[in-house]
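Holo model, phosphoric acid mono(formamide)ester. Inputs:
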Amino acid sequence: MSLRHFLSTQDWSRAELDALLERAAAFKRTPHGRQLAGKAVALLFFNPSMRTRTSFELGAFQLGGHAIVLAPGKDAWPIEFEVGSVMDGDTEEHIAEVARVLSRYVDLIAVRAFPKFQDWSVDREDRVIKAFARHATVPVINMETITHPCQELAHAMAMREHLGELRGRKYVLTWTYHPKPLNTAVANSALLIATRMGMDVTLLCPTPEYRLDPRYMDAAQQNARENGGSLRVSHDLESAYRGAHVVYAKSWGALPYFGRWEQEKPIRDAHRHFIVDEAKMALTDHGLFSHCLPLRRNVKATDAVMDAPYCIAIDEAENRLHVQKAVMAALVGQG
Ligand code: CP
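Output:
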């Protein structure tokens, strides 16, 4: 039987995702358990983190397990991912050894590896986590690469806590301004999970260039068809916000400009008004606001929105802990 990983929610059935969310709710009520007793998880961070690192380490501890945090290239050897590479550059060991050695020590390997932001045709292959999954002999968890499935579960859990059944609810994923071009991972994930939940989803972005990769647009369309929801793209702020039940904000760099970011900058700079503010939220149907965090206040969303009772970003961040415990427990056969 092939090894079960948690690389994308698309690899898990709707019933399995619902079971993870139910398990997460149980962990929220009763935080401590022995599901990871005597087990260890390696957390490999190729990029910085606050929530992910804290919630995974704490989650392993609360279930009786142990987490080991490694930053390859910083406190662990830089890793080579090319097959057949003559390793006479900066990398010291190959993923073929790293993944197999870690698999002899630990029961789970979790990986955060963002795109390099130079060539989307390369980054969209998600080579780092796929190489870990190929070579590891223990389950691998995606802690954010070009999708962010743990964030998806936390987001779905927070929305359900506040809205109950999500099918048919109006969901807006809005692009927001940010001074730097950011990863599309959370945006891809937002489309995947909202359509999976049968929501009526609008991707609101400044121009057609900010559409997401067709892989995720197509998967979201398919999810919508299968789960009774819908997906549309809008560039009109007012009609997108009107009547929304959930507004989820994220900034990302436009894929046609990948690696040529100086050419994208004028477009991004011209759309600072995509900031989520009280006037836009007033168009919604008592809508909730959320964001994966970290968030630059008064750039992506105003202080008033972040401090409003309808902002559930902190609930969503808390839920990272509960959903990841559910994922870890499931992958070691204790779900
Ligand atoms: N949302 C999220 O993944 O946060 P961190 O980048 O702080 O881990």
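The chain has two domains: 9-147+320-331, 150-316. The first helix runs from residue 14 to 29.
Archived with the compound record.
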